[in-house]
């Protein structure tokens, strides 16, 4: 299968190359009557020069473009027709006679001034939108260098929360559109050039990571080069997403890549280099402080620790594992074409070193987009994206990872011994983990992915008002991970060598057939009808194997390991989806607008009883600003009220929950171990779709020639029939519980976007602000009284009816026992409770502190988010910055739970210097006792911290060379810039970074920090050049 897919990809490339070459063809030489035409293109109303107007010789590929002063120069033949075209202006045609100078005035196009946005299966004018959507333009994407799609979206859309689940290069992200409506997944559907893509990071995760969110998976979307993106639209309410039916419950992100335009061929170069580092360290004990702590605990005596005055700082392990890392990116794009054929071809390379030694990310990417008009009625083309990525992971975002163990490793040990080998602490100091530098550099953990996204279309105008379009697309993703740990013996810790290999192959294809009718009657009635059929099919295969005791550390072949210690496995699955859908848009006099959609999906993930689901929606908009009674309001450009209601679905439950599955089991028969097969689950043939019903009320307001734009929305989203495992009695044995539709989650929220054009002219200044507030409540869990999520076997969150999803659950701290009498007078905690121990509240007043005294102690979901960005330009200089704000969310700091635990010989936080002693009656840090008989480290409010923060996310300063200099360089544009990311963060959180995210996109586990790879502060220097 893999070879066939690669051969297919090669064939697609072969087929597209001739078209590209034909698009580049130019006439061999000019005709004898050729002349040079010069002139200036200006706005017919304001007389301002228009920059970047396309000029094309009709019927040829010859063309040009205006400069910063609106001037142009083009070679043409007498009798040729020049076409002048510019976005938001009416195109003009001029026939060449004997003139040498042709000045052109273009009239603004009132209709095109209305921004065109991408919606499901088509485009529409912004003024005709009846649902709720947010747009991110190419200008916004070019403001700052970004390596991932998540960075391009962050902070730029109301109601959309983007968090990095790991700061590792290529690390996983979570994007939530209007809250969390499912216990299974809250990630939106991505549609890239018409191909639906689910950002399921599990397709690239090692099979050895466990099932409790212990290890962060990589990000499958890191195969997409953000430099190739032209625009991003985020569909938020059901009236906008219902056209995607069973896959639209969590919102839809539409990504359109750059395409060629008619005119002279252009070469664009985008390149940058940068450096990044850790923003701040976590304070832990130095050698002198650690030795004093060690001695006070009556550990085994160490001679070097006896005289503290002779000790210095010791080894700072954070300085050893964190580094100043470098990153660089280069993207070269060739675009252009003639009147019939346009093309855009690009290639890019990105390397991003991680701030933790040994970690890195690389991406090679390429794109070929072609559009060809066979005649006035028939068009065809393609979009082709290919990428190859490599991630050097070498660590995990958990308590076994390099970041976490660097905080715990003792400052008494050097990094290396005198002979160059990695060092271990003194024999008296017993640790169950190794030197973190050794872990980072010696462990090899490499994840490679290859992705091909291809979509081909054919479009024909059957009638002047009726268009047929068909598309065929495919998404092929091949991921492989190899993890090698060498054999070592360090102090009291030894390990056998081990090699683990996993392969994942994911394949998907989609075929669409669309009919679109656009008709205007009596200049008042505008109808736009869409009818479509779609078939999709996909599947996966994975294999994994592990061996121990390899003969050496260089020949990493799985067959060289000890076959007696092998572990092998694998699996596969397939799914299909067939869909029928339609949409009707009606507009009367550009005042009253109605949109209705319906989609019927049939999914192989559900049994015959509930295979099909129907998802309707309707929305209405009233544009008051076009009413006659508001005609005299000159300052009012737009006033529109919107209301919409719709139903969408969620099918992400795995492939075969409705039927019986079998799995391999081993059994002992005599002196042999045999493999057999047995049922692994209890089926539910009646399982059906999760359904989400959403109501949206919105208002759009434009004032003072749209220099002030306000967009406000209120929504209510009810997710019904949430898919949950049924509660089973113990008599069912080890069978997996059936999936049943019992849950219900409600999200209500308000969104506000304010865009202002503060000044225009030489000093141009614009501002964009967005605000989002959302509440979440679980209203039904069926027979499941609660859902408990664990991290490394420890319960950290609980989901119950009447509460938001995934709340922190534990005990409430009521201070520290200061005197022995305080212990005897308080509710009983433990027979070994003493003065200096944590005092917990007896919530049920039964006189005993036990599990019944646990309660909800924190909410990881923010109360609201707010972001503000500014763009300023003056005489070639440009300045932009974005502030990100997240407020009201809590973080469970699991790192403090260990570094303030006094457990074992590991290093501790500097906060323990203020620990309770009879001479220092602290009320913040308990007494030092290794066994923790009072369970002072149980999950409690002690480790819940405010995760609110305000961050200067991006700051960019650029300079564009003057046009006279550009002309001497034979260039069209040259801009240099310096940019900073994550420069300043204001927060009370004591960990590395308050942007913690979720565990592998799990909606039940958010903001649990147990040693996450921190987000870095970066400075970047770059240039944008056009030739």
TrEMBL record:
Keyword Membrane applies: yes
Subcellular location field: Cell outer membrane
Superkingdom to which the source organism belongs: Bacteria
Domain TonB-dependent receptor-like beta-barrel: 456-983
Membrane-topology annotation of the record: Multi-pass membrane protein
Pfam families xref list: CarbopepD_reg_2, Plug, TonB_dep_Rec_b-barrel
TonB-dependent receptor plug domain mapped to chain residues: 126-252
Any one cellular-component term (Gene Ontology): cell outer membrane
Keywords tagged on the record: Cell outer membrane, Membrane, Signal, TonB box, Transmembrane, Transmembrane beta strand, Transport
InterPro entries: Beta-barrel_TonB, Beta-barrel_TonB_sf, CarboxyPept-like_regulatory, Plug_dom, Plug_dom_sf, TonB-dep_OMP_SusC/RagA, TonB-dep_OMP_SusC/RagA_CS, TonB-dep_rcpt-like
First and last residue of the signal peptide: 1-23
Protein family: Belongs to the TonB-dependent receptor family.
NCBIfam families documented for this protein: OMP_RagA_SusC, SusC_RagA_signa
Name under which the protein is recorded: TonB-linked outer membrane protein, SusC/RagA family
Species of origin: Neolewinella agarilytica
């Amino acid at each position: 299968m893999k070879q066939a897919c690669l051969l297919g990809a090669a064939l697609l490339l072969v087929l597209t190359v001739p078209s590209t070459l034909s698009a580049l063809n130019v006439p061999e030489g000019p005709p004898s009557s050729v002349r040079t035409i010069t002139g200036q293109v200006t706005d017919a109303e304001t007389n301002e020069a228009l920059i970047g107007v396309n000029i094309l010789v009709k019927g040829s590929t010859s063309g040009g473009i205006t400069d910063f002063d609106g001037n142009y120069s083009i070679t043409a033949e007498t009798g040729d027709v020049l076409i002048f075209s510019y976005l938001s202006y009416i195109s003009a045609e001029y026939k060449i006679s004997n003139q040498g100078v042709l000045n052109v005035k273009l009239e603004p196009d009132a209709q095109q001034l209305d921004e065109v946005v991408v919606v499901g299966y088509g485009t529409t004018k912004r003024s005709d939108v009846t649902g709720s959507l947010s747009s991110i333009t190419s200008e916004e994407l070019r403001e700052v260098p970004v390596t991932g799609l998540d960075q391009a979206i962050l902070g730029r859309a109301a109601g959309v929360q983007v968090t990095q689940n790991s700061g590792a290069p290529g690390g996983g992200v979570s994007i939530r559109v209007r809250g969390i409506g499912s216990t299974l997944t809250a990630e939106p559907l991505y549609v890239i050039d018409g191909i639906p893509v689910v950002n399921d990071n599990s397709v690239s995760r090692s099979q050895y990571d466990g099932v409790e969110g212990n290890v962060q998976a990589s990000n499958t979307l890191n195969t997409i080069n953000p430099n190739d993106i032209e625009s991003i639209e985020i569909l938020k309410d059901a009236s906008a997403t219902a056209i995607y039916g069973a896959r639209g419950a969590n919102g839809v992100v539409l990504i359109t890549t750059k395409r060629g335009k008619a005119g002279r061929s252009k070469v664009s170069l985008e390149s940058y280099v940068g450096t990044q580092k850790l923003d701040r360290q976590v304070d832990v004990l130095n050698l002198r402080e650690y030795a004093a702590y060690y001695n006070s605990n009556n550990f085994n005596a160490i001679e070097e620790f006896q005289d503290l005055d002779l000790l210095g700082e010791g080894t700072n392990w954070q300085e050893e594992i964190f580094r100043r890392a470098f990153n660089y990116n280069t993207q070269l794009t060739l675009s252009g074409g003639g009147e019939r054929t346009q093309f855009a071809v690009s290639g890019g390379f990105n390397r991003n070193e991680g701030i933790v030694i040994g970690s890195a990310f690389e991406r090679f990417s390429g794109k070929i987009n072609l559009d060809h008009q066979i005649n006035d009625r028939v068009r065809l083309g393609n979009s082709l994206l290919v990428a190859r990525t490599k991630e050097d992971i070498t660590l995990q975002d958990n308590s076994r990872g390099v970041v976490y163990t660097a905080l715990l490793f003792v400052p008494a040990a050097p990094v290396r011994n005198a002979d160059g080998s990695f060092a271990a602490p003194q024999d008296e100091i017993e640790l169950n983990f190794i030197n973190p530098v050794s872990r980072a550099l010696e462990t090899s953990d490499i994840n490679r992915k290859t992705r091909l996204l291809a979509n081909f279309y054919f479009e024909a105008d059957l009638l002047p008002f009726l268009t047929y379009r068909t598309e065929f697309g495919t998404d092929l993703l091949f991921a492989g991970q190899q993890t090698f740990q060498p054999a070592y013996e360090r102090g009291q810790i030894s390990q056998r060598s081990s090699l683990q290999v996993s392969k994942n192959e994911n394949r998907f294809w989609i075929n669409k057939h669309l009919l679109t009718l656009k008709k205007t009657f009596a200049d008042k009635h505008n109808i736009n009808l869409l009818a479509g059929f779609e078939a999709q099919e996909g599947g996966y295969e994975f294999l994994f194997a592990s061996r121990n005791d390899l003969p050496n550390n260089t020949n990493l072949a799985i067959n060289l390991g000890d076959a007696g210690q092998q572990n092998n496995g694998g699996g596969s699955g397939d799914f299909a989806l067939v869909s029928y859908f339609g949409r009707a848009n009606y507009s009367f006099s550009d005042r009253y607008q109605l949109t209705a959609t319906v989609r019927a999906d049939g999914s192989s993930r559900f049994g015959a009883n509930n295979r099909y689901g129907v998802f309707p929606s309707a929305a209405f908009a009233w544009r008051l600003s076009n009413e006659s009674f508001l005609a005299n309001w000159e300052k009012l450009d737009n006033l529109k009220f919107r209301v919409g209601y719709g139903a969408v679905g969620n099918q992400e439950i795995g492939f075969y929950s409705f039927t019986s599955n079998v799995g391999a089991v081993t059994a002992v028969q005599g002196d042999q171990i045999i493999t057999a097969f047995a049922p692994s689950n209890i089926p539910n043939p009646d399982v059906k779709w999760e359904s989400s019903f959403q109501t949206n009320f919105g208002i759009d307001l434009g004032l003072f020639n749209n220099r002030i734009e306000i967009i406000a929305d209120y929504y209510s989203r009810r997710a019904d029939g949430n898919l949950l495992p049924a509660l089973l009695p113990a008599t069912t044995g080890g069978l997996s519980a059936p999936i049943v539709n019992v849950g219900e989650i409600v999200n209500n929220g308000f969104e506000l976007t304010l865009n202002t054009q503060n000044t225009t002219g030489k000093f141009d200044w614009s501002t964009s602000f967005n605000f989002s507030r959302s509440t979440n409540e679980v209203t039904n869990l069926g027979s499941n009284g609660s859902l408990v999520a664990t991290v490394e076997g420890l319960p950290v969150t609980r989901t119950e009816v009447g509460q938001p999803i995934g709340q922190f659950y534990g005990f409430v701290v009521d201070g520290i026992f200061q005197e022995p009498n305080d212990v005897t007078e308080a509710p009983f905690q433990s027979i070994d409770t003493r003065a200096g121990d944590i005092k917990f509240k007896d919530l049920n007043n039964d006189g005993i502190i036990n599990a019944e005294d646990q309660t909800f102690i924190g909410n990881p979901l923010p109360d609201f988010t707010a972001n503000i960005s500014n763009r300023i330009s003056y005489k070639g200089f440009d300045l932009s910055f974005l502030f990100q704000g997240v407020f009201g969310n809590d973080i469970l700091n699991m790192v403090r739970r260990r570094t303030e635990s006094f457990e074992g010989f590991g290093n501790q936080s500097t906060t323990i210097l203020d620990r309770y002693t009879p001479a220092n009656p602290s009320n913040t840090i308990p007494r030092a006792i290794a066994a923790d008989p009072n369970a002072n480290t149980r999950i409690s409010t002690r480790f819940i911290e405010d995760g609110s923060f305000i961050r200067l996310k991006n700051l960019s300063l650029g300079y564009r060379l003057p046009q006279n200099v550009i002309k001497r360089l034979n260039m069209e544009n040259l801009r240099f810039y310096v940019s900073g990311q994550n420069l300043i963060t204001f927060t009370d959180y004591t960990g590395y970074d308050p942007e913690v995210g979720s565990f592998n996109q799990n909606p039940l586990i958010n903001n649990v920090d147990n040693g996450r790879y921190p987000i870095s502060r970066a400075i970047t220097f770059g240039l944008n050049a056009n030739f």
